[in-house]
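Model it.
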Amino acid sequence: MAGHGLRLHGIRHESFEKEGEIGVWAAQHGRSLCGHTDLWNGETLPELDAFDWLIVMGGPMNIYEEEKFPWLKTEKRFLRTAIDAGKRVLGVCLGAQLLADVLGGKVTKNAHREIGWFPVSAGPQAAQSRIFANMAADL
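Modeled.
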């Protein structure tokens, strides 16, 4: 999966939560944002062979509101399947919370509201990760 030509697919939970600068980054690095799924609009998730890297965007809902947003259950199953298939998956905001839940983490309300983009750097443990070990080379 390393190198150029990776196909990115976005999952959107609201009309205003788009890939934005991630799509710009992808184009600048020889990747393609090959499509997106608007779950909020009833669209169907892609087949696993349609993408290499899944970008799971944010949204105003809570990850546990499955009765109000029934597609959350389907999405969680899909994320688990994508992870088990070895796909790269990046979660942003709600997307990160969904990934934490799918991977067995506990998601709770933070004492402080966090909105926006912040700098992130890899710690020494990143070299031990299948996902992050070569990330610097990909950037």
